Amino acid sequence: MSALEDLLRTVAKLRDPDGGCPWDIEQTHQSITDCLIDECCELLQTIDRLDMDHMEEELGDVLLQVIFHAQIAKENGYFDFESVCSVLNEKLIRRHPHVFGDLEGLETSDAVLDRWELIKSKEKKRGPKELGVFKDLPRQLPALMFAEDVHKQIKKKGLDGTSFYSLSGVSDIMERTDSDPEKVGKLLFEMVAWCKDHDVELESSLRRYTQRIIDDIESKEGSP
What we know:
Order of helices and strands: HHHHHHHHHHH
Shape: globular
Helix content: 55-70%
Oligomer: single chain
Largest sheet: none
Number of strands: 0
């Protein structure tokens, strides 16, 4: 057997009501969400450090979370790890016609991303139907990533966000950093420290303001 097959059998055994692990048997999709967050964060730490030896282990811990969720779904008759891999493989092939098909002319990353989004827009949607102007972003995203994604959609869709933010003042400050990542990081940290010293909840403040931008733009665009 391959190492992957061994791992699948191990997780199935851990979940087996007859002789498995009591803790593993008790878990549900909801009860192990914190485990997924923790393991992803630990993996990101190894990536930031380029700690390849530790990264190998942490990648395994993240993979375990995927397999664990797939095992729970299999037990309840929804899907299994094999189908997860199959859906992913089909998606990768479908969204890369310049590699697996006869499409030509995609010679830059920007061209590839544009084609990816076009193909994605034509695919059958899974999950809740999106009713608003904005893509349905997970509210579990950290506030900074949430804001980044909203700004990305505003630019991509040509929406007007000028009533909520102007980049002119920020540009003056950022130009003095010469776009140096360390200087930008220092500036962001100083903003975080200032908010903390003045009892401003930075995460919730940014999340609320970003949501306010979404609500305002969608009301102007006449979204449901």
